[in-house]
Amino acid sequence: MSNATITKNEAGASSLRQARLPRWTLPALVVVSAAAGAGIGTAAGLGNTLQWGLIAAVLFILGSYGLAAAVEGGRQAKDRLATSLVWVCFVLAVVPLVSLIWETVERGKTVLDGYFLNHSMEGVQTILPGGGAYHAIIGTLEQVGIATLIAAPIGLLTAIYLVEYGRGRLAKAVTFFVDVMTGIPSIVAGLFILSFWIIILGFSYSGFAGAMALAILMMPVVVRSTEEMLKLVPNELREASLALGVPKWRTILKVVLPTAVGGITTGVMLAVARIAGESAPIVLLVFGAAGINNNPFDGAQSSLPYYIYEQWQLGNEASFNRAWAAALVLIAFVMILNLVARGIARWKAPKTGR
Amino acid sequence: MAKRIDVSGLTAYYGSHKAIEDISMTVEPRSVTAFIGPSGCGKSTFLRTLNRMHEVTPGGRVEGKVMLDDENLYGSGVDPVSVRRTVGMVFQRPNPFPTMSIFENVAAGLKLNGSYKKSELADIVERSLKGANLWNEVKDRLNKPGAGLSGGQQQRLCIARAIAVEPDVLLMDEPCSALDPISTLAIEDLIGDLKERFTIVIVTHNMQQAARVSDRTAFFNLAGVGQPGKLIEIDETERIFSNPSVQATEDYISGRFG
């Protein structure tokens, strides 16, 4: 019986065995299509390497489909086609990101040093090298910090209301307005605070005014992400706690929130990262300043996105360098926040190890 | 400890849907009462009305009386939170708190209620884990996460957690349906021990289990899909399984339907 089966397999008559492309085919195809893309690009006189890359990508997709169709048959060819499409899309998504970081690091590192990080632009001639972004870093940290202090608790409590208590019309209305708020352009949030805080109430420009506009932008993001995280907490855990005779508020505080805290932290950090790069409300509300102002509640401040914009506007070599350096600082700031969030998420994640 | 439950005319709804209708029964203290019946007949719903967990479900409401000794659980001014401290519950799927260690899981009820003395906590945890026949398996790793235990151990951890708050009644909603036969045996033995101290009500789909662990058995049934579930009869377990007074019970037990 088993002998017969083996003989059949060796004869290649088994329906379970089929011709397969050798493993090196795909890497080889990548090299070949890259070379062909470059060749065609040069021949056609295309100066842009991006165009070469796109030609190579198309060749790779067609090539993998064609090869698989010829050797392995129709179903595998479709599988290869889908796989190469996914890979090409992945590369297309990563290329801009990597080139952006590459470009920023390359240009930003020329003036980024200790001096840049702890000096302001006070008294610096804008066409000359020198000066720094200390005042902008302070401004960003304070404005984003205050915005987070306002938006995170409100957003968190709103999400708790929506998931744990909200029923009926009020909850639906809150959800609707949170969705609407998610779509508010940052300039509109800035104009709102401008008309309300500065024009009607008569306060002057300050970091705090900017922080309020940032808080408006941040709140819906915090609500949305926290809501999703709280919904992921299994209902069984709430019931287990309630069945022990634990009141609902303590159940939420001691069981639901700790279970979701990793995801909630990540959500808040991502919201912080989103508002750290906003410049429109800062232009309207914080006004921008060349000197150091440590007090966010009084007088104009700067911030990193505003600083980049301002330096770029000046339009000379030295200010371009400063703009790139500040962009690098901003990216690093956001990246550090993300790493911290991931660290917290991993540290607080529910433990399953033995 | 161990109180008598006296239910009369209990009807429970999910929104406008009537899940169980007009149930009356008495559950004796220091005994095991098993609920059997086909799926959807309202056994679990009825069980959840006994510690006011039914109303946690959106739209859940209850009519009728549940007397715990001489107190009506649904009387005016009764706090569901204190009802649940008196009537504990173990669920179908083991659900230890994933953020807590084994020790913290058992201590959770006391800690979250804030009603404990620090010096007593370790004693209570040890006693509860011994009570749930889990102590020997976990005494060396009390600080490890509770979610790292096997399914059967997790379920016994949940039982330890439930008995740590010293309830009078322990409700178990198919506590063994997610467990293998050996863990099931461990839990059945445990139920036998626990009935010395608690009034136990257990929902089960396993009729052999009902026959093995319970003193009295209640059979629930429903007339059809969408109809409310009803209590068909409740009697000594031996009688239910040998000579039930209602034909439907005999049909169900002998496997003629359901």
Q: What is the fold's blueprint, element by element?
A:
The complex is a heterodimer of chains A (354) and B (258).
Chain A: H1 2-10, H2 25-43, H3 49-71, H4 74-108, H5 114-117, H6 134-165, H7 168-182, H8 186-200, H9 207-232, H10 235-243, H11 248-276, H12 280-285, H13 304-314, H14 317-348
Chain B: E1 5-14, E2 17-27, E3 32-36, H1 43-49, E4 60-68, E5 71-72, H2 80-86, E6 87-90, H3 102-113, H4 118-131, H5 135-138, H6 151-164, E7 169-173, H7 181-194, E8 199-203, H8 207-213, E9 216-222, E10 229-236, H9 237-242, H10 247-253
Parallel strand pairs in B: 3-8, 3-9, 6-7, 7-8
Antiparallel strand pairs in B: 1-2, 1-4, 4-5, 9-10
Helix pairs in contact in B: 3-4, 3-6, 4-6, 6-7
Jot down its keywords.
heterodimer; A: mainly alpha; 2 domains; 75% helix; 0% strand; B: 258 residues; alpha/beta; 6-stranded mixed sheet; 4-stranded antiparallel sheet; PstB-like (chain B); ABC_transporter-like_ATP-bd (chain B); ATP-binding (chain B)
Write up this protein.
The complex is a heterodimer of chains A (354) and B (258). With 354 residues, chain A is mainly α. Chain A has two domains: 17-108, no CATH class; 134-348, MetI-like (MetI-like fold), CATH 1.10.3720.10. Chain A has helices at residues 2-10, 25-43, 49-71, 74-108, 114-117, 134-165, 168-182, 186-200, 207-232, 235-243, 248-276, 280-285, 304-314, 317-348. In chain A, helix 4 (74-108) crosses helix 14 and helix 6 packs parallel to helix 9. Residues 1-11 of chain A have low confidence and may be disordered. Chain B is an alpha/beta fold and 258 residues long. Chain B has a domain at 5-96 and 169-253: Rossmann fold, CATH 3.40.50.300. Chain B has ten helices and ten strands. Chain B has helices at residues 43-49, 80-86, 102-113, 118-131, 135-138, 151-164, 181-194, 207-213, 237-242, 247-253; strands at 5-14, 17-27, 32-36, 60-68, 71-72, 87-90, 169-173, 199-203, 216-222, 229-236. Chain B has a six-stranded mixed sheet, sandwiched between helices. In chain B, helix 3 (102-113) crosses helix 4 (118-131) and helix 3 (102-113) runs parallel beside helix 6 (151-164). The longest helix of chain B has 14 residues, at 118-131. The mean pLDDT of chain B is 88. At the A-B interface, helix 10 and helix 11 of A face helix 2, helix 3 and helix 6 of B.
